[in-house]
Amino acid sequence: MSLINISSFSSHLFWDTDKNNLELEKHKAYIIKQVLEYGLMDDWKILKRIYGLKTITETAKNFRELDKKALSFIAAVSNEPIDSFRCYTYQQSIPEHWNF
Prior knowledge:
Layout (H helix, E strand, L loop, with lengths): L27 H11 L2 H11 L1 H9 L6 H11 L7 H7 L8
């Protein structure tokens, strides 16, 4: 089995930062969010091997914002109610502009 590190993920995930400065434990929340929102299925599999579904879910529950598709995905695979995620309840409390 090969060593899993930050370079195992797709290169497009960390376009806004220097990958060499990312540490798997220290930057766990950032890595999980990037994979949930922009990752491919292979990135998801790597993420699950590194952190496990429980850790990913608990971390995602604390995000203030998360893309709607990513939120639906993590809620479905973790079998958690969508309203148990902070980003779901936080987004519900922000009124949207009228859309004509």
